[in-house]
Amino acid sequence: MLDYYARCARTNNHTVREAACTCIGELADKVARDAVAPSVPRMLRTLIACLRDDSWPVRTRASEGSIIRESTVRGPQTCAGGMRGTQCSDRRLFMLVRTQVDVT
Hints:
- It is globular, with a radius of gyration of 13 Å.
- It has one domain (2-100): Leucine-rich Repeat Variant (Alpha Horseshoe), CATH 1.25.10.
- The protein contains eight helices and no strands.
- α2 runs antiparallel to α4, α2 (14-30) runs parallel beside α5 (56-66) and α4 packs parallel to α8 (86-100).
- It is 70% helix and 0% strand.
- The chain is an all-alpha fold.
- The protein has helices at 2-8, 14-30, 33-36, 40-50, 56-66, 70-73, 77-80, 86-100.
């Protein structure tokens, strides 16, 4: 499913790109954390690319979708707890999004 959303986020139609960003955000928010966690880096990379879109509605949806809840990504406490690997990569991507989108 994420492959489909990622392809849609690169299409020529801005409405489809906007919908893809919304769907990615919903996927992160609504699906069980353990099921989504391995896909979070790719989801964020797709949304970050859309933050640079020429269409403001796409950028808006990408910024909303990029605010993948800290509980989904497991936020800064993941690496602080000494874990390595994917979770720390997720943290770096989350922090990258925080620098591009005001999440407070």
